[in-house]
Amino acid sequence: MPKKNKKSIFEIVVAWPFRIIFFVIRVSLLTGIIIGGWYMLQTVGILTVNVPVTGASMLPTLPEEGYVGFQRYYQNEILEKVLPQSVQKGDIVVFENERTHKELKEQNKESTGFVKRVIAIEGDAVEIKDGLVYVNGQKTPEKYTLKPRSTFGGTEIQDCRSIKVEKGKVFVLGDNRKISMDSRQIGLVPIADILFYIPFEKQTDRFGKNWRDPSHDFDTEHESLFDTKLFIQLLNNERIKQNLNKLQYQPKLEKSAHLRAEKMLEFDEFDSKAIKSGYTMKRAMSDAGYSNIVYGEFPMLGYYDAQELFDAFLVQPGAREFLLNEDYDEIGVSTFVGELNECPVQVVVQHLAGYVPPNYGAGEIQNFKDAISKMQDVQPGWQRLESFEEFYQEHKSDVDRINEIIAIRISRFEKIINQMEANKWLTEEQNQWIKNDIQLSQEQNAIADKLNK
């Protein structure tokens, strides 16, 4: 029987396991080198990470749907010594935190983070005013925004209130300022929350063709950008789609809207009840020489153009129902540029009005006819008292007054009945007659009781 070779046993028992372990180590090191190299290439931008982009908040720079290549951003002190990285103004960043997760969840969107542009970094002073962004007191030309003068404050960062960017944080905005949720609503963003970025200097070749010429962005400061005719056209097109009548433009409603806009800014009050100013839409319409049966107003703050305001109204709670109300047939719009708390602002006020026939019930008209009939029954008796010379001279003022009251009431009721039968709304004067008739009726009865004693 042949003997086993000691060398073979050694290779089986000792050498091969070491070879396997060494092989695994070599593969692991190679894999680590590949992964590390791949990571480094993503970091320096030679390779990019495709990040999903959804929504219109970064128009016109990024698409509404699709994938965009980003550099990976890291927070590592050791790597930073080898490959220095820093987020600068103009960079586009992707970041995630609890606030973004919450907002995306409420919108039923995947939690892939927010994509925004860095406008200011730590130490910078930022202010939003008159639709523009000021960084360290200087107006910022922004060729990448969808529209000029389209930046307005939010819940976290309000208009005309300068803030200083804290250490380790950045101030971000979307390029489509009117619809973007960004630092204005969620506050400053910690740099530690940034996952990916595109340096500003690498954007021109990729996205520059989508940007505007900003050379005239500051020409229209403190001026309205609103095109009333275009807005009415957009609104009427939508009403036609909904099988509603087109609204006719009414200059008197434009005047009443302007009067209300002035009071809104003067008193910092945008509620239709006008408790502070006491100057309601009804008063404004009266001062403009206009009246109607159904009317309402809707104000909006901001430097909107016609398309933006129309789009905003369609998603504003209650606005769509207001603008598409079938009872309205006339409209007036006023844009007023003024100051609110020493901050430039534009308010757009819409006044809509229409006529709806009263369609009185037969019983309502009959009540007035019955009242006339009763007074006509007693009227001759009170008139005959004038023929009783002695009695009449003794009670002349009362007899004349009761006959006057009856004549007034009959005359007024006849006019009210004519208005009702024509299916027209009662005038303010006629409504006042109805209110005053209670007093006249009581006076008539009191005189009658006195004369009958």
Describe the structure.
This protein is an alpha+beta fold and 453 residues long. Helix content is 43%, strand content 18%. The chain folds into three domains: 163 residues, Umud Fragment, subunit A (Ribbon), CATH 2.10.109.10; 127 residues, Pathogenesis-related Protein p14a (3-Layer(aba) Sandwich), CATH 3.40.33.10; 91 residues, no CATH class. It has a seven-stranded antiparallel beta sheet. Strands 7-6-5-8 form a four-stranded antiparallel beta sheet, with no helix packed on it. A four-stranded mixed beta sheet has the order 12-14-15-13. It is elongated, with a radius of gyration of 39 Å.
Structural class: alpha+beta
Q: Tell how many strands the DSSP assignment holds.
A: 15
Question: Which bin fits the share of residues in helices?
Answer: 40-55%
Task: Predict the CATH topology of the largest domain.
Answer: Umud Fragment, subunit A
**What overall form do the CA principal axes indicate?**
elongated
Write the layout of secondary structure elements.
Elements (H helix, E strand, L loop, with lengths): L5 H39 L4 E6 L10 E8 L4 H6 L9 E4 L2 H9 L7 E7 L4 E5 L2 E4 L2 E2 L23 E2 L4 E5 L9 H4 L2 E2 L3 E5 L5 H4 L20 H14 L6 E2 L1 H17 L13 H7 L6 E8 L4 H10 L3 H5 L6 E11 L2 E12 L7 H23 L4 H6 L1 H26 L6 H25 L1
Parallel strand pairs: 12-14
Antiparallel strand pairs: 1-2, 2-11, 3-4, 3-11, 4-9, 5-6, 5-8, 6-7, 9-10, 13-15, 14-15
Helix pairs in contact: 6-9, 7-8, 11-13, 13-14
